[in-house]
């Protein structure tokens, strides 16, 4: 609602142009959100309740964090397919380090948690370092680089664990970071909110954020304006992986085990969240607020489908369809941008 | 009014050559709009069979737009194309080719990994029952090449050919069908003298057969040698159609550039001061690179770099700026040796280069005007505050510059891609004002820019110079060089052919070093 009043205030145009303008400015997300809420409210009485919506928030917190990182890669005109692997590797390495420290020093619970988290996030971030070096310095296409790293990371995670879950983390880890809550809101949500605020400041209040947009908007122009495009790309993939790693540690706390098999759906879902939110696959276009909303939207759809008892296999069909729809919408939007002069 | 003029012209020059009642190809008020710019405006043009009709005009005058529509590669916004007296709608290059209109474009439409024959028959492969007939294709290709007297083997891969040979393949492609209209867009740009002669012989042969040829060239010698009539375009408009035999070079250049000079070029007071940029013996790698060029630019001067496209004038500036690799050479900036220049370092030293291709090198089309303006100065005061951006200052600076340059519409949050060509150029110019630069290089600052904005840009450049900045103006637009610069280097094939100063910068003097002198 605020959307339409805002854009009608911005320009005095005919009413018929309004949906088109909202579409051009904000992409397909507002339309999908309205449709989803209406459909699921009709399908299930439990959908539009405060408790359920809080549930959605909690369930989609991991995807939200990953999507924020994915957005950075998309903004530079690339993407990161290895976010799922990053999650898995983080989980495995973090859990093993934490369990080992805890076993050696059963009294130092918080030290074990700290060492575990640190090790896990560093391990996951290393995938981003590799991606970044490949993309920025060797000109490997982000598709090949992150696809390759997906295999590398997954292989390492399986090799480390032999395919079995890692147990032995201190109880407090899961209690605080997995299930803990403050004022009725779960810890992971606080973490996600903190990351969102930091990233917002970084993107919109520092030159470095602008560089990410500039490299995606026109890498040559950025280079001629004195921006170090390689460093920007490297840093972007590192941040993307770091975000995925944080999500990986939070998910580990939630599961209470280190798993090599988590995160497989993350690449698709995070890219879908970004694209639905209007992040251009050509780079340079997209807002953080919208991406968070996009991730929540995907959570909302999954939750709604669960409540409406749609089979989980069919859910993946819907998700893939949504992603393609969003890409088509992006193409149409680009055509409109050219035709709408204002 | 324009059509009257061209009708009169037909009567005047067409007495002898008129072969049939209808011209072979004719356009009526042909118009093409691109977002924000009218590339071709109410164009009336006619081509008779058996003539070589030359299109003449500056870069961006609309020649390419016209031929791309005649060849079916582009569709007119309004107006008609008549072929043999009947209106036609050319939906694609294939459709045009079926009718007998074949075009050879400047950019090659060849697939490098395929053979000569495969390229020639791409999209129209001889087949039988759905299967390719490679032997038939090869035989046909051989026949076409033989007819054209091109010494090419149909089985060779295109990426193993020289540029001139590729050009020949491109021409041969047009002869797959028997064309009645042939469009040649600067076909000799990469040909040697011998190959050019071959091409001219071919053109003469075709002309005898009654083929109408539309020929784009910048070379005066070619116009005299093969042209029958010349149509001059300027700023997307039809200017005149003249007889090639009776129209002198001076008259042509006048028609091509012909505007009242005093109205758009400001009077500049040159005040040469310290040397800012000094480049000695610059070499860049690769063939066609710079080959030992030296130049210097002083404060308060507007130095021009003239020359044909590919003569090295842009490369020289880019190499000095650090955005193009250097093989050897010495570069001094404000009296300091820079060694191998790096873009970021040069910007910090006070060297700004504004690239010619706004779309590919200059602007972030999907980002707002504000971000495009501030791009090069994000880490400088007042835009930066410690680690953070001062967004309020950024807004203020961008608004002020938009006011100063008369950005239209004056909305700094509008996407760069939505502005017209001239206003996009203003965004680039604004970038050079976001901090103090000692040297500003303008690379083709008025390509695709309307006359009004041109005047504003010239005024802007003049002011910068009078305020003590050193200006380097790289331009293929001769009037710009003649009226704006106080010293000009003429580039030819990677070398500096001449340095002209003050009153010596005349059209004759510059052109003398500009064009290839083949016949002398």
Attribute tags:
heterodimer; A: 342 residues; mainly alpha; ABC transporter involved in vitamin B12 uptake, BtuC; 76% helix; globular; B: 520 residues; alpha/beta; Rossmann fold; six-stranded mixed β-sheet; 19 helices; 24% strand; disordered N terminus
Outline:
The complex is a heterodimer of chains A (342) and B (520). With 342 residues, chain A is an all-alpha fold. In chain A, 76% of the residues lie in helices and 1% in strands.
List the helices and strands and how they pair.
The complex is a heterodimer of chains A (342) and B (520).
Chain A: H1 2-10, H2 18-26, H3 29-43, H4 50-59, H5 61-75, H6 83-104, H7 109-137, H8 142-161, H9 171-178, E1 181-182, E2 185-186, H10 187-205, H11 207-217, H12 219-224, H13 229-255, H14 266-276, H15 288-307, H16 312-339
Antiparallel strand pairs in A: 1-2
Helix pairs in contact in A: 1-2, 3-15, 4-15, 5-10, 5-13, 5-14, 5-15, 6-7, 6-8, 6-13, 7-8, 7-13, 9-13, 10-11, 11-13, 14-15, 14-16
Chain B: H1 2-13, E1 25-34, E2 37-47, E3 52-56, H2 63-70, E4 78-83, E5 86-88, H3 93-99, E6 101-104, H4 116-120, E7 127-128, E8 131-132, H5 134-148, H6 163-174, E9 181-185, H7 193-208, E10 212-216, H8 220-226, E11 229-234, E12 237-243, H9 249-257, H10 261-264, E13 275-283, E14 291-298, E15 302-306, H11 313-321, E16 328-333, E17 336-337, H12 343-349, E18 351-354, H13 358-362, H14 369-374, E19 384-385, E20 388-389, H15 391-404, H16 421-431, E21 439-443, H17 451-466, E22 470-474, H18 478-484, E23 487-492, E24 495-501, H19 507-514
Parallel strand pairs in B: 3-10, 3-11, 6-9, 9-10, 15-22, 15-23, 18-21, 21-22
Antiparallel strand pairs in B: 1-2, 1-4, 4-5, 7-8, 11-12, 13-14, 13-16, 16-17, 19-20, 23-24
């Amino acid at each position: 609602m605020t959307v339409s009043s805002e854009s009608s205030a911005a320009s005095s145009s005919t009413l018929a142009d309004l949906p088109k303008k909202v579409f051009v400015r904000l992409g397909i997300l507002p339309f999908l959100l309205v449709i989803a809420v209406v459909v699921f409210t009709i399908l299930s009485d439990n959908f539009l309740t405060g408790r359920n919506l809080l549930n959605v928030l909690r369930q989609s917190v991991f995807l939200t964090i990953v999507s924020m990182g994915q957005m950075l890669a998309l903004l530079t005109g690339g993407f990161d397919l290895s976010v799922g692997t990053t999650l898995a590797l983080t989980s495995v390495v973090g859990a093993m380090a934490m369990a080992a420290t805890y076993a050696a020093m059963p009294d130092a619970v918080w030290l074990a948690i700290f060492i575990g988290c640190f090790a896990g996030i560093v391990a996951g971030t290393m995938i981003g370092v590799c991606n970044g070096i490949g993309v920025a310095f060797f000109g490997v296409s982000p598709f090949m680089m992150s696809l390759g790293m997906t295999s590398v990371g997954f292989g390492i995670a399986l090799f480390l664990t032999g395919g079995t879950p890692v147990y032995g983390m201190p109880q407090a880890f899961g209690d605080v970071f997995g299930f803990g809550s403050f004022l009725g809101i779960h810890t992971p949500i606080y973490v996600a909110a903190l990351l969102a605020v930091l990233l917002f400041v970084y993107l919109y209040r520092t030159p470095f954020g602008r560089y990410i947009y500039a490299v995606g908007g026109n890498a040559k122009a950025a280079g001629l304006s004195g921006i170090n495009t390689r460093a920007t790309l490297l840093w972007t993939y590192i941040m993307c992986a770091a975000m995925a790693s944080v999500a990986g540690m939070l998910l580990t706390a939630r599961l209470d085990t280190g798993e090599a098999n988590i995160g497989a759906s993350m690449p698709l879902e995070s890219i879908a969240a970004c694209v639905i939110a209007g992040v251009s696959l050509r780079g340079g276009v997209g807002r953080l607020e919208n991406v968070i909303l996009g991730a929540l939207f995907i959570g909302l759809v999954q939750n709604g489908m669960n409540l409406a008892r749609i089979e989980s296999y069919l859910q993946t069909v819907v998700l893939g369809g949504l992603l393609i729809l969003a890409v088509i919408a992006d193409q149409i939007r680009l055509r409109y941008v050219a035709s709408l002069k204002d | 009014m324009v059509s009257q003029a061209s009708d009169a012209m037909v009567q005047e020059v067409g007495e002898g050559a008129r072969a049939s009642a209808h011209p072979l190809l004719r356009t009526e008020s042909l118009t093409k709009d691109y977002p924000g710019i009218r590339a071709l405006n109410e164009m009336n043009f006619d081509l008779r069979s058996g003539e070589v009709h030359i299109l003449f005009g500056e870069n961006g005058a609309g020649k390419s737009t016209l031929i791309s529509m005649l060849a079916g590669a582009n569709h007119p916004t309004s107006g008609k194309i008549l072929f043999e007296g009947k209106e036609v709608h050319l939906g694609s290059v294939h459709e045009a080719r079926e009718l007998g209109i074949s075009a050879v474009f400047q950019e090659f439409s060849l697939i490098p990994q395929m053979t000569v024959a495969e390229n020639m028959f791409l999209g129209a492969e001889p087949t039988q029952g759905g299967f390719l007939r490679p032997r038939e294709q090869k035989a046909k290709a051989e026949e076409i090449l033989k007819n054209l007297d091109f010494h090419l083997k149909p089985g060779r891969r295109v990426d193993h050919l020289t540029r001139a040979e590729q050009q020949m393949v491109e021409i041969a492609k047009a002869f797959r069908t028997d064309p009645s209209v042939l469009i040649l867009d600067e076909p000799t740009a990469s040909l040697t003298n011998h190959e050019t002669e071959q091409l001219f012989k071919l053109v003469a042969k075709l002309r005898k057969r009654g083929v109408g040829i539309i020929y784009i060239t910048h070379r005066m010698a070619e116009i005299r040698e093969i042209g029958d009539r010349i149509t001059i375009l300027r700023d997307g408009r039809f200017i005149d159609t003249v007889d090639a035999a009776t129209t002198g070079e001076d008259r042509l250049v006048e028609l091509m550039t012909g505007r009242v000079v005093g109205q758009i070029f400001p009077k500049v007071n040159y005040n040469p001061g310290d040397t800012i940029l000094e480049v000695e013996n610059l070499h860049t790698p690769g063939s066609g690179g710079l080959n030992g060029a030296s130049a210097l630019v002083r404060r308060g001067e507007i130095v021009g770099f003239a020359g044909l496209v590919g003569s090295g004038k842009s490369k020289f500036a880019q190499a000095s700026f650090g955005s193009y690799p250097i093989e050897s050479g010495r570069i001094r900036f404000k009296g300091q040796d820079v060694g191998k220049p790096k873009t970021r370092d040069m910007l910090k030293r006070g060297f700004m280069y504004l690239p010619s291709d706004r779309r590919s090198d200059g602007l972030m089309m999907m980002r707002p005007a504000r971000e495009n303006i501030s791009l090069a100065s994000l880490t400088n005061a007042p835009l930066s505050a410690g680690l953070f951006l001062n967004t309020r200052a950024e807004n203020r600076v961008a608004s002020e510059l938009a006011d100063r340059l008369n950005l239209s519409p004056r909305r700094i949050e509008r996407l760069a891609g939505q502005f017209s060509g001239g206003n996009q150029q203003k965004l680039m110019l604004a970038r050079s004002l976001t901090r103090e630069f000692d040297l500003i290089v303008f690379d083709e600052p008025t390509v695709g820019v309307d006359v009004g904005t041109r005047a504003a840009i010239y005024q802007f450049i003049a002011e910068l110079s009078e305020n003590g900045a050193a200006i380097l103006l790289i331009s293929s637009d001769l009037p710009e060089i003649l009226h704006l610069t106080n010293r000009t280097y003429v580039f030819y094939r990677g070398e500096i052919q001449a340095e002209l100063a003050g009153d010596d910068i005349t059209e004759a003097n510059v052109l003398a070093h500009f064009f290839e002198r083949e016949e002398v």
